[in-house]
User: Which sequence fits this backbone?
């Protein structure tokens, strides 16, 4: 009882751990197809061959296999859901074309989570679907839509979904993170909700059992109170206010200055050096006026007082020429830390007072405040004070008036202006930053047209464009925004009245792109014939990073081919509201808000049931959280992946990759700050480590895909030279493939980039595999078991496949072959301009043929090879060649468009029966003639009783000739199949009246199998029957080959092996699909193999490579070949002549003769054998006695050199070439 229980338990464990292949096949009725083992003992090397340009091959193993062997049709559905295991592909789902499965994640032992857009079996993929392989059922995980999932982490029964989405939890919006508890089948949320509005989660990494890392683009939490950190009252200088700047610094380098009698250095003034004075005025009052080259609406002014105590300004005011008045200002009092206002008399503190006050700060709010919905900030430090303009008006000049001094003179290091709009000018000189040391600033670029400055005092530029002559005018604006938030983008167009271009102005297309330049945020056509300056709002909404805006010419106002004036002025990106990390505080001196910059280390134990009920639960400010603030730029996306237990890769969309080593507490031990420079778009794991994709500088070389396996390495032989956004891993047929952006395919196993071919075609969007070797992927695939065959192949008894082209030493296509002896074969090979003959031992014959070789026969006794060659619109030839001396015995040229389809050799007559589609005028024969290659003479055969087209000929027992085609036999027309007795030349018509040429036949035992281009038929015992099949009308059969079977396929009566035949060609079977070969055992059809080829014209020709010489080479003497009689088929015919064609010996018989019982045959044969042996023995003894030497000695006989030695020892280059 115990044993039974243990056995059943182990069996259950085995079933659960095995792949779901058998289960899926049972549900979908996918049955195996058992291919019979062929008996190939009669063929050389126990193989038969497929000749031609063969790229790949698969043996048919299961129904439905054909769905994954034919090429992917362009425009077809290439996003299906496919299952793969143990070299078996099964279609699970066929969704509509608008369905996109973006992620497939294994879950448990038998399920996968599917995420994407569109639907599958009526279920929306945005609900995140659970696909169960045991039941092939689909279940939605959430009852709400999760639009864009970028990453999924499975942590036991809890599944984390991260991405770019918003979900409702009661009355609260949760951003970018949601969880599913598979045990309770419930939706869950973390205590802090998500990561704030407009956040994105790119990666969720499980660091250990207690720590999970979130990486993406975020700066806060939905519940920011969890970021409040306790501090001690003794902490000072906890916040460096110089790290935050809201708004754009107005470039002053193109400004002009009114300095009066003061000393002024403009270069030092616009790029402040706080240790130097740039403006000095003797006395305690003075003024400095900045005249801007364009109008701005300043939001604040930053003033750097003089470093010299005797020259420091103590009171000032700000005037604007346009307002002709004093500006109202707001500032933070460094002593009281309160917001204050001033106008005519504003205080400017000395540097000594600022330094002492800064040392006493305890909170960021002491030094910085946000104004106007976070669109303006004012702050102070030891070096400067900032004053915000209460009234924001457009100005073209700003005047600083010093009213008093701490000493005897007034001086400044500098003042700077800020505005809450990022202005970018088409004239890029106006965008130049104040300091060359500034790494990034707004900029613009122009097309290669003749751009000119506009009117004097204006900031716009213009160009005259002539269509089809000049480059298309183009302007690109690149504003550099610092923080994510809500923005409005306006484009300014100068008026046409002043420059008198209203009639020639153009229509332009203005497009707002995201930071990657891949997605369009907004686009608009703008007519530039406005009379006065105008602006158009292009976009209003959220921006997480710097956009790019382009202006491009579309047409003239009145016609697309007229000369047009294109103008470009400036772009303004207005700040509506911002998300600035670290600028919110509760105002107390013992707490601060922890800053986030795309990384959050979440410790699960901090939020356990016991601790989560208290108000002390916080997010710990770990070294990983701090790392993103210290070593990565702000306003970019973070990515993460774990290489091993303590090696973490952190990537940034604008900062390369850093390798971080963690200790057992998940604190940073080391951080390689210069791991890899560049931009990261994602990570993907594979067998060789971790793949990082984006754009990188590796060893001074730009690359888009790198591997990390302890060090960063270039992917060998990978040649995609553009940015990468997605990498999908798929292992199939034990070969690991990486599909990059569903465009390039990289073979990890061979370290090579491959392309779609007839042997492998792959479209792959997503893939997932579990530990039980179940793989589910979305896409389409056409794959064969044997790929990269590159030519002709040999197929063995045990379904082995080997390339034979290399053995023949040919780089060209083999397309027909002939057995010569047990160790040697000869092939016809096609080059671009001619055909040649090649031997299987690697040598080539010294003849070339401008036409294609369509038939060959060989006589081993004569070592004679007869070759028939023909081609469309070319002369056909008959060549008789000696393979011992490599001489040409005879050569005959036939008329254009003639073709020889068959040759029968009679050695003792030195004569060939030649059949085909031709006419020999001098011998008055058509389609069937005699040719004597000793006398080079064409002769009439059988008194010209047969004429027409002969498609195929074979000898039967050496005494009968079986012919097919479409011909006349004396008074009978349209004969398709006939047999001729070669002793009497009597012709018996077997089939007639079919207008189609009977293209091919095969004799198998008592049967003749025929193909007329439409259907297969069998002739036996004087009666015809149609061989039933599921072929459609598009089927073409190239040849019929008799074959013997091994024990795999048995007769139903259990009597052993059964004979049948193989057909090859392009077979369209309604049950098995499109295949290239099928086997028939006279009871049922079995699919055999599927091949692919780049050249279908010469691919898949079966060459059995066995001695079939009895079918075309006769040892009999052809007597009186001009006599003939014709008979019609008799309904009482006792049978069909048998052939020696099969690989198995067959019982032979002749037409019209009575059968002899097998027992009598054996007795008669035994008696004749004994008598013959006795008689030969007696004769031998008598001859030996008569001719013996007198001394009893004798010389050994020297054997004749065999043909193999001749072929191997005669150097081909010394032989005459026949053309």
Assistant:
């Amino acid at each position: 009882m115990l044993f039974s229980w243990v056995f059943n338990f182990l069996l259950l464990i085995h079933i659960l751990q095995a792949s779901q292949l058998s289960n899926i096949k049972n549900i979908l009725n996918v049955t195996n197809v058992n291919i019979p083992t062929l008996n190939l003992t009669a063929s050389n090397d126990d193989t038969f061959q497929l000749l031609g340009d063969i790229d790949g091959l698969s043996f048919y193993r299961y129904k439905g296999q054909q769905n994954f062997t034919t090429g992917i049709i362009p425009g077809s559905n290439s996003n299906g859901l496919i299952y793969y295991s143990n070299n078996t592909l099964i279609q699970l789902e066929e969704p509509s074309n608008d369905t996109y499965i973006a992620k497939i994640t294994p879950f448990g032992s038998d399920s996968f989570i599917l995420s994407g857009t569109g639907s599958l079996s009526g279920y929306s993929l945005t609900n995140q679907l659970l696909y169960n392989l045991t039941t092939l059922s689909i279940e939605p995980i959430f009852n709400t839509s999760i639009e864009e999932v970028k990453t999924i982490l499975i942590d036991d029964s809890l599944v984390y979904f991260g991405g770019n989405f918003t979900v409702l939890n009661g009355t609260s919006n949760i951003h970018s993170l949601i969880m599913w508890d598979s045990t309770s089948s419930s939706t869950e949320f973390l205590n802090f909700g998500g990561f704030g509005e407009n956040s994105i989660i790119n990666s969720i990494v499980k660091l250990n059992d207690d720590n999970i890392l979130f990486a993406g683009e975020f700066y806060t939490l939905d519940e920011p109170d969890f970021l409040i950190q306790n501090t001690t009252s003794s902490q000072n200088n906890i916040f460096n206010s110089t790290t935050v700047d809201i708004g754009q610094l107005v470039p002053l380098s193109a400004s002009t200055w009114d300095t009066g009698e003061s000393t002024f250095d403009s270069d030092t003034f616009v790029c402040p050096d706080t240790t130097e004075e740039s403006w000095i005025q003797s006395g305690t009052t003075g003024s400095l006026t900045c005249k801007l080259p364009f109008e701005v609406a300043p939001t604040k002014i930053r003033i750097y007082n003089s470093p010299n105590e005797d020259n420091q300004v103590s009171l000032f005011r700000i005037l604007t020429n346009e307002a002709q008045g004093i500006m109202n200002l707001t500032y933070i009092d460094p002593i009281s830390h309160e917001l204050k206002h001033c106008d005519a008399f504003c205080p400017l503190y000395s540097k000594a007072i600022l330094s002492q006050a800064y040392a006493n700060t305890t909170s960021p709010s002491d030094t910085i405040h946000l104004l106007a919905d976070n669109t303006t900030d004012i702050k102070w430090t030891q070096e400067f004070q900032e004053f915000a303009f209460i009234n924001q008006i457009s100005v073209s000049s700003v005047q600083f008036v010093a009213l008093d001094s701490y000493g005897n003179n007034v001086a400044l290091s500098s003042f700077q202006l800020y505005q809450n709009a990022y202005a970018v000018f088409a004239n890029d000189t106006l965008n130049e930053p104040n300091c060359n040391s500034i790494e990034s600033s707004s900029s613009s670029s122009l097309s290669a047209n003749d751009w000119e400055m506009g009117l004097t005092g204006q900031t716009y530029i213009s160009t005259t464009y002539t269509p089809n002559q000049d480059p298309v005018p183009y302007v690109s604006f690149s504003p550099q925004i610092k923080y994510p938030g809500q923005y409005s983008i306006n484009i300014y167009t100068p008026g046409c009245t002043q420059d008198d271009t209203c009639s020639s102005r153009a229509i332009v297309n203005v497009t707002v792109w995201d930071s990657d330049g891949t997605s369009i945020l907004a686009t608009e056509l703008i007519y530039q014939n406005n009379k006065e300056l105008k602006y158009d709002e292009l976009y209003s909404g959220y921006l997480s990073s710097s956009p790019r805006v382009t202006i491009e010419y579309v047409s003239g106002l009145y016609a697309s081919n007229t000369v047009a004036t294109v103008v470009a002025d400036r772009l303004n990106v207005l700040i509506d509201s911002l998300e600035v990390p670290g600028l919110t505080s509760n105002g107390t001196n013992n707490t601060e808000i922890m800053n986030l910059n795309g990384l959050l280390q979440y410790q699960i134990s901090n939020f356990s049931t016991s601790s989560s009920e208290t108000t002390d639960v916080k997010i710990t400010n770990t070294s990983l959280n701090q790392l993103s603030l210290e070593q990565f730029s702000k306003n970019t996306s973070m990515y993460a992946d774990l290489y091993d237990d303590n090696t973490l890769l952190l990537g940034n969309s604008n900062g390369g990759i850093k390798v971080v080593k963690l200790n057992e507490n998940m604190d940073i031990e080391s951080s390689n700050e210069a791991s890899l420079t560049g931009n990261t778009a994602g990570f993907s794991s594979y067998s060789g480590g971790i793949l990082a994709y984006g754009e990188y500088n590796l060893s001074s070389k730009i690359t888009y895909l790198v591997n990390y396996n302890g060090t960063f390495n270039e992917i060998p032989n990978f040649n995609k030279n553009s940015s990468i956004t997605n990498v999908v891993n798929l292992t199939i047929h034990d070969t690991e493939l990486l599909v990059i952006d569903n465009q390039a395919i990289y073979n990890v196993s061979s370290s090579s980039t491959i392309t779609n071919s007839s042997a492998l075609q792959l479209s792959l969007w997503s893939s997932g595999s579990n530990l039980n070797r179940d793989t589910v992927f979305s896409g389409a695939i056409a794959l064969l078991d044997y790929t990269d065959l590159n030519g002709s192949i040999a197929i063995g008894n045990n379904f082995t496949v080997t390339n034979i082209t290399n053995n023949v030493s040919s780089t060209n296509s083999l397309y027909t072959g002939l057995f010569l002896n047990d160790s040697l074969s000869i092939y016809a090979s096609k080059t671009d301009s001619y055909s040649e003959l090649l031997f299987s031992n690697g040598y080539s014959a010294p003849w070339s043929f401008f036409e294609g070789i369509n038939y060959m026969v060989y006589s081993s006794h004569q070592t004679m090879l007869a070759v028939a060659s023909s081609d469309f619109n070319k002369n056909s030839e008959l060549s008789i060649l000696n393979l011992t001396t490599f001489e040409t015995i005879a050569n005959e040229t036939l008329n254009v468009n003639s073709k020889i389809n068959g040759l029968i050799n009679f050695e003792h007559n030195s004569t060939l029966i030649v059949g085909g589609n031709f006419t020999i005028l001098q011998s008055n024969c058509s389609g069937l003639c005699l040719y004597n290659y000793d006398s080079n003479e064409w002769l009439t055969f059988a008194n010209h009783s047969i004429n027409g087209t002969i498609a195929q000929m074979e000898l039967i027992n050496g005494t009968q000739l079986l012919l097919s085609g479409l011909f006349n036999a004396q008074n009978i027309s349209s004969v398709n199949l006939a047999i001729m007795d070669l002793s009497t030349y009597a012709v018996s018509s077997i089939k007639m009246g079919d207008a189609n040429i009977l293209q091919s036949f095969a004799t198998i035992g008592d049967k003749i199998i025929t193909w007329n281009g439409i259907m297969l038929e069998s002739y036996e015992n004087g009666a015809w029957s149609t061989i039933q099949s599921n072929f459609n009308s598009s089927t073409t059969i190239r040849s019929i080959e008799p074959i013997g079977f091994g024990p795999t396929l048995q007769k139903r009566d259990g009597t052993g092996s059964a004979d049948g035949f193989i057909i090859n060609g392009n077979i369209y079977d309604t049950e098995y699909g499109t295949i290239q070969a099928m086997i028939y055992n006279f009871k049922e059809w079995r699919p055999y193999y599927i091949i692919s080829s780049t050249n279908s014209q010469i691919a898949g020709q079966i060459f059995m490579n066995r001695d079939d010489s009895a079918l075309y080479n006769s040892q009999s003497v052809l007597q009186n070949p001009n006599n003939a009689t014709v008979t019609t088929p008799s309904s009482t015919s006792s049978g069909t002549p048998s052939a020696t064609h099969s690989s198995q010996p067959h019982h032979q018989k002749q037409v019209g003769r009575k059968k002899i019982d097998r027992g009598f045959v054996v007795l008669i044969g035994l008696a004749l054998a004994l008598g013959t042996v006795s008689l030969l023995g007696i004769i031998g003894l008598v001859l030996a006695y008569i001719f013996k030497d007198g001394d009893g000695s004798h010389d050994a006989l020297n054997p004749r050199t065999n043909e193999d030695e001749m072929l191997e020892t005669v150097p081909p280059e010394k032989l005459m070439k026949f053309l």
User: Anything to note?
Assistant: The first strand starts at residue 38 and ends at 39. The radius of gyration is 45 Å. Helices lie at 2-17, 21-27, 266-270, 351-359, 609-612, 623-631, 1158-1186, 1203-1209. The mean pLDDT is 84.
